[in-house]
Amino acid sequence: MANKLDQVKQILNSPTPILVTASNGFSISEGVNIFQNNADFQKILGDLVPKYHFNSILSAISYPYNNLLDAWQVWARLINYFIGNYQISPQMKYLKQLLKDKDYLIATSNGEYHFNLAGFNDESILATEGDWGTLQCFGEHDNRRLIRSLPIAQKIVDAENKDQLNSDLLPKCEICGNVLLPHLPFNSQYINPVQSQNTFSKFLNSAISMHKPLTVLELGVGQNHPNLRKPIFDMMRSATQVNYIIINRDHIVVPNSIEKQTTELAGNIEDILCELTLPNTNKS
Description:
The chain is of the alpha/beta class. It has helices at residues 2-12, 24-30, 39-45, 49-52, 57-62, 68-82, 90-99, 114-117, 150-161, 194-209, 226-236, 269-276; strands at 18-22, 104-108, 125-127, 131-136, 147-148, 181-183, 215-219, 243-248, 262-266.
């Protein structure tokens, strides 16, 4: 393990651009688990379980509510808890240290907006499946924009705590009057993050067409995650100069064609990121 760590440190310390991919394993390591009926779920939504019979944050997000006020009651609580109460975690601090002064992009399927809150450049974050940190109108018109979700969520939660929850509190589009919703791909009117998508494409294309060096740092991405893994695997078939680093609790299988370019560090993500910020163990 020590030799692998030193090898990865050497790669990350080079001036090579870094493409970070992060998914549920990274969030879980940070303390956000949308799949379990855990203490956070009970604290945020436990009183609503008898009404809706959901058993996790994911099932609460996916629930077909009868009206938008019911949906926003849930969204406001989630946003207020996970965004409003966020304090940068140790593993985020370690990652920031590793990416300091680097040309980087973070492509993540995690929606809780923590990379933005941790101080990474917004334009260097590609939320591949949207995020909870911003809202949008899903009406069919131009000039739709993203707005911050937290101030609205806080007002709704405050009103609920005072037994004053009502539909007048719901955020409305200034143009069409539709109720705003979290920036998630609910339908074809989803606002695509064009700038960060272009940066993602630039990273891949420069490695393929110009044979420029690139390091991919994968953090907690599951075995079957096509949005985050397939474009990179496709790129690496013709970009043998790319280094692929996997940090995950579980063993991850990669195609045989990229095994030689891949270094896997299995274990706790926070612990490994911490180790990578330390000096090499090899003193020679």
